[in-house]
Design brief:
Blueprint lengths: L6 H5 L2 E6 L4 H10 L28 H9 L7 H11 L4 E4 L6 H11 L10 E4 L3 H14 L8 E4 L5 H10 L3 E4 L1 H9 L10 E4 L2 H6 L3 H10 L5 E6 L4 H10 L4 E7 L7 E7 L5 H12 L3 E5 L3 H13 L4 E4 L5 H13 L4 E4 L12 E6 L6 H8 L9 E7 L6 H9 L4 E2 L5 H21 L5 H18 L3 H13 L11 H23 L13 E6 L9 H12 L9 E3 L4 E6 L4 H9 L1 E2 L2 E2 L3 E2 L2
Parallel strand pairs: 2-7, 2-8, 3-5, 3-6, 4-5, 6-7, 9-14, 9-15, 10-12, 10-13, 11-12, 13-14
Antiparallel strand pairs: 1-8, 16-18, 16-21, 17-18, 19-20
The protein binds adenosine monophosphate.
Length: 605
């Protein structure tokens, strides 16, 4: 977890819609429950008196309260306030909330606090739809458990080394966070002992449904001890998830957090797919065609911020840099210049731009992809401030394309694919800007009256001397103002067209590939719509169909049930996938590792 959010961030962006069981009676029972006997004997209780502040009063150990303070958490977010009392009592819970609301801590903190010492077997299982989320949740657990260095948290997901996961499970783990396919494999092989599980969390349940993992999830649920706490978090509540919740949760508390103000709704989000070697040229075009107000460009490293700023300056832009090497006083001056419009473009690293609040930022460009969705949310939050509209544009190379959907999920908003602006668009924008500047100058009175008179005389004299019309004279003045360089961009744009056309082709293929192949009548894809592929893992690698389905579904965006017949042989396997796999997905699958071996997928003759 890389970023910190202040309480203010949470409180103005979220609204607690309903907390079914927040009655005063239950608050009483919480107070009653906050006694040392209820928690592990070694845990010291931070506070159980009236008038709690921050994280005190929920029955958390002082150790945990200290860790949270060190992380910079001042106040629980709305979802945490509602969830902590329920979960500390061991109740089941259904929460409707998105990423960014603090939902991970909402379940992780109480579950950590309720762990039994020296239990010997895994006590908590969290199921998450993707390996990115699984890793993120596992990292959060580790961070919150900083006061308990002996506590073991393990993330298990497809595409990662199976054997090392088995070794870790054997050595003893307290919390397992995993994707359904891989968790199921470990359960089937007997390498994950679930008999000691006390709590289960389904995180982003609707996403697991969307990705076709719901059957796997139900299979897992059926195998687990019946007497356990269960928590379900989902951004939306489709009927399948409601059914699941009714069937497996016992009188759950229900919490709904609706993101209101400050959500990225005012921010138009787009992405451009392009080869890394073209990024700088594309950036210059985007800056010309899109921006009018302040711009922040996010780059991954200090070195990139500097080289970007140099290239943009050379192209005639006013640029300032904000990175970790810039001393504090200079940073403040830079932000002030940006605020006043003295400089229009800021090139920054994530750390340096943290918390930056400048109203006139109209565009955020993610020149380099952010490290995770949290960083993305933070970056785009620099625009659309104070109720204004904002725009965010993300550059991704073909291999990074797959991150777009996880970012969409995190912000709960679709991102539109965008073309690299061609010469016509750039030129239209140049002319528009000239129009605007001319309008401003024409409407303003020059301050120096005497000078104005002299200039007028000069124009009159010239028109007579050279027998020019007023229009011809005005044009000559414009040329003088524009300078010797051509106003219009005439650079080679064949690469722009090529890149844009390729992207359009790919996204057409991709949407056909991912969605329209499903037969109306059966959930299985029809045989004739399938193509056979060979992958270089087989029995000798101990691969099981579930490993292949999980890993491929995760990587390609295909639903698990759209993956057809799988035949496993000694050294390789054959797998049927829908026809028309886009090239970039194919490339990713080639390098994808299952059972620690690259799939090296190829079409089977
Ligand atoms: P999540 O919704 O779980 O993805 O969390 C969003 C972000 O908020 C993460 O960076 C957390 O570390 C952070 N966070 C969670 N709870 C708090 C809190 N009470 N105060 C400040 N930051 C928090």
């Amino acid at each position: 977890m890389s970023q910190r959010k202040s309480h203010e961030d949470f409180s103005c962006s979220e609204e607690l819609i309903a907390n079914e069981s927040n009655s005063s009676k239950e608050k009483e029972s919480l107070k009653a429950s906050v006694s040392p006997e209820d928690l592990s004997s070694q845990k010291e209780i931070s506070n159980s008196a009236e008038g709690f502040e921050g994280f005190e009063g929920f029955g958390f150990s002082t150790n945990l309260v200290k860790t949270l303070a060190e992380k910079g958490y001042k106040e629980p977010s709305p979802i945490q306030k509602a969830a902590f009392p329920e979960l500390m009592l061991g109740r089941d819970l259904v929460g409707q909330a998105q990423t960014g609301t603090g939902k991970t801590a909402a379940f992780a903190l109480p579950l950590l606090e309720r762990l039994e010492d020296n239990h010997g077997k895994p006590q908590v299982l969290v199921l998450a739809p993707t390996r990115e989320l699984a890793m993120q949740v596992a990292d959060s657990f580790r961070a919150y458990a900083a006061g308990h260095p002996h506590l073991k948290v393990l993330a298990v997901y497809g595409g990662a080394d199976f054997r090392s996961q088995i070794t870790s499970l054997r050595r003893g783990v307290d919390v397992v966070v995993g994707t359904p396919g891989r968790v199921m494999d470990h359960m089937r092989q007997g390498t994950f002992n679930t008999s000691g599980l006390r709590s289960l969390v389904l995180d982003e349940a609707d996403e697991m449904l969307r990705m076709g993992f719901i059957d796997d999830v139900e299979w897992i649920l059926e195998q687990l001890p019946k007497d356990r706490q269960m928590i379900l978090f989902s951004a939306t509540m489709p009927s399948e998830i409601r059914r699941l919740s009714k069937r497996y949760l016992h009188e759950p508390a229900e919490i709904t957090i609706r993101t209101t103000k400050q959500s990225p709704r005012l921010i138009r989000q787009r992405f451009i797919t392009l080869h890394s070697s073209r990024k700088i040229e594309a950036l210059k075009r985007v800056l010309e065609a899109v921006s009018d107000e302040g711009v922040i460009i996010f780059a991954r490293t200090k070195v990139i911020t500097i080289s970007l700023a140099e290239s943009l300056e050379a192209a005639g832009h006013d640029v300032a840099v904000l990175n970790g090497d810039v001393p504090q006083t200079q940073r403040e001056r830079t932000v002030e210049r940006l605020r006043k419009g003295k400089v229009n473009i800021l090139v920054a690293t994530d750390v340096a731009a943290r918390g930056l609040d400048v109203e006139r930022i109209g565009l955020v460009i993610n020149y380099d992809i952010p490290s995770d969705s949290e960083a993305y949310i933070h970056r785009i939050g620099r625009t659309g401030r104070a109720g204004r509209n904002g725009e965010a544009i993300l550059f991704v190379n073909p291999r990074e394309r797959r991150f777009v959907s996880s970012l969409e999920r995190a912000v709960g908003q679709q991102m539109e694919p965008m073309d690299i602006p061609n010469n016509t668009e750039v030129n239209k924008s140049r002319l528009d800007r000239l129009h605007k500047r001319l309008t401003t100058v024409a409407m303003e009175e020059r301050k120096n009256k005497e000078e104005t008179e002299l200039l007028q005389n000069l124009l009159t004299r010239l028109t007579t001397e050279l027998s020019l019309s007023h229009e011809q004279m005005a044009l000559a003045s414009l040329s003088l103002a524009i300078g010797p360089e051509s106003l219009l961009l005439e650079a080679d744009e064949s690469w722009v067209d090529e890149s844009n056309n390729r992207n359009r082709r790919n996204s057409r293929q991709e949407s056909q590939f991912v969605s329209s192949r499903r037969s109306e009548r059966s959930s299985r894809v029809m045989e004739e719509d399938m193509e056979r592929f060979r992958v270089e893992v087989g029995h000798r690698d101990r691969v099981k169909p579930g490993n292949l389905v999980g890993a491929i579904a995760n990587e390609s965006g295909l639903k698990g049930r759209m993956i057809g017949r799988i035949q496993i042989f000694e050294s390789y396997s054959l797998i049927d996938l829908p026809k028309g796999m886009p090239k970039d997905i194919f490339e990713c699958l080639k390098r994808l590792k299952v059972m620690n071996k690259e799939l090296r997928i190829q079409r089977s003759p």
